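User: Structure please.
Assistant: Input sequence and predicted structure:
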Amino acid sequence: METMPEYAPSTSVAHPSRAQVDAWLTGLGSHIGENTPSVEELRASVSWRVTAPLRAIRARERLARVRSGHLPVGLGTLSDVSSLSASRAALHQRLNQIAPHLLGPGTPVGPGEPSLEVLLGLLCRAALADETLAKLWLLVVGVSGCFPDHALLLGLSRDAHGLSDREGAARVLQHCGVWTARFRSNLREIEVVDDRVVAFVNLTGRFGFNSGVQRVTRETLARWYPSGDVQLAVLTEDNTGLRALGRSEIERVIDWDQSKSDDVSELDDDDFPLVVPWNTTFFMPEIVSGHGALTLGALARFTPTRSVAIVYDTIPASSGFSVPRLENHRFTTYLSMLKYFDEAIAISASAAEEFDGFRSALAAQGLAGPVVTSTLLPIEHIPAEAHAGDEASDDLPMILSVGSNEPRKNQIAVVYAAEMLWRQGKQFRLLIVGGRGDTGLTQIGDAATALQSAGRPIEVIRDISESRLADAYSRARFSVFVSFHEGYGLPVAESLAVGTPVIATDYGSTAEIAEGGGCILVDPRDDDALTEAMGRLLDDDTLLATLHEQIEDRHDTSWDDYAREIRNVVFVSKGALK
């Protein structure tokens, strides 16, 4: 039997007080007919008694937060947040949005047609009769204004199983009331999207930085967005739903400005409707963790929406020793979501093998997992005049190594090989460039400092713009990227893109990229082989010229090609029921 992950309440969201839940139940109790149980009857139910210990724990947590000053004392009830009419209007809007999908396209919707009370009763009856839980998922979204996670949906389904229409509807109100009060979602409006692909752009839309994942997201969706058949969405701050983007957030995705790389979205979730994918395709080119992964995993698991993800690597799991401990935890929550997806498109054949291994392991849980395919990321060659630097300023040939300070990147081997060559009398300089990564990892910086004190021409730059990085690639005689484990090996592609030969790892995705030419492959665990290869490229102009010719003759795909291939996968059979 599958074990469901437990929900850990967000520290940024208030737990509902008894008064809040009472207010919500009292305000909605009449919506399902005259025979609806009162609040007192609900509190006398078996479900209410069973969950009493959990509510007591939440109450103590809330009291502790009030005393510590992290939560205002005067939260009030829903009537304090908004008028009852506004709350009622928002509920009616949500129910009108889900009604055609639960009751059929002929369902009349609109103010007073049918009444909120009648509509709620009809929707509860239809959803509770659906054994797949798909309609129940959508009903929870409509009633609570939140996407349910696995635990909420399964708990509600079990609690309402076998009950009469009246009692089942009461359970819906009870469970959704707690959810609505906790996340104060009573005024949210929703838009059910069934005619466009919904694309998840959480980090790309909210932040201006442009890592490898964000670059894939931007390059792909910037080419899709003008067609009008893509709805961009980000997670709400409380991770309980997807919302539409504001204009500035859309621009971060489809018209990114490098000068605003430190830009952060400050828009309010309440200003935008929730985006509810239904019987369409949900496309995830990014990675997500935490409760957001549980929310989206439930969407993929229970709804008729087809789910497709771009996947990058399994390094936090298969090479977990090489990444910070928190990354391991985040990645496991990501995998707990991915196992319910329909398809996964890996960025290389090597990465596809890793995720296919994960998929095979899911048989032990009785799950099929996503169908795994691969589409190699592109290498879009840059004309020489677009990146040429001032060659006259380089008094020594430069070797370039690009990568973060993680041990997995194996830059210490490059430093060692450089020192061996300097001892042999070779004349060159070594430039190490890349993200800072974990500030506690100082091995590369310490080694560079020691060599600098000995007079060696070595430099480490951890913060660099994309234009300056492209210039460094163009100035280099060759680059070196001998990482132990990569999902793709972007520095190899970047170097080839500007016409600079590369010494690269002889297996995995880097070997896959190198197949087109322009590279020398070595075992990253063999220091002598690396030293020899670097020495050859320093001394042998003929070999270097041959590699340049190979780069010129490469037939690599462009971002246009990549976006087209991914689109062919994402848009095929859009909306097919599982």
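The first helix runs from residue 18 to 28.
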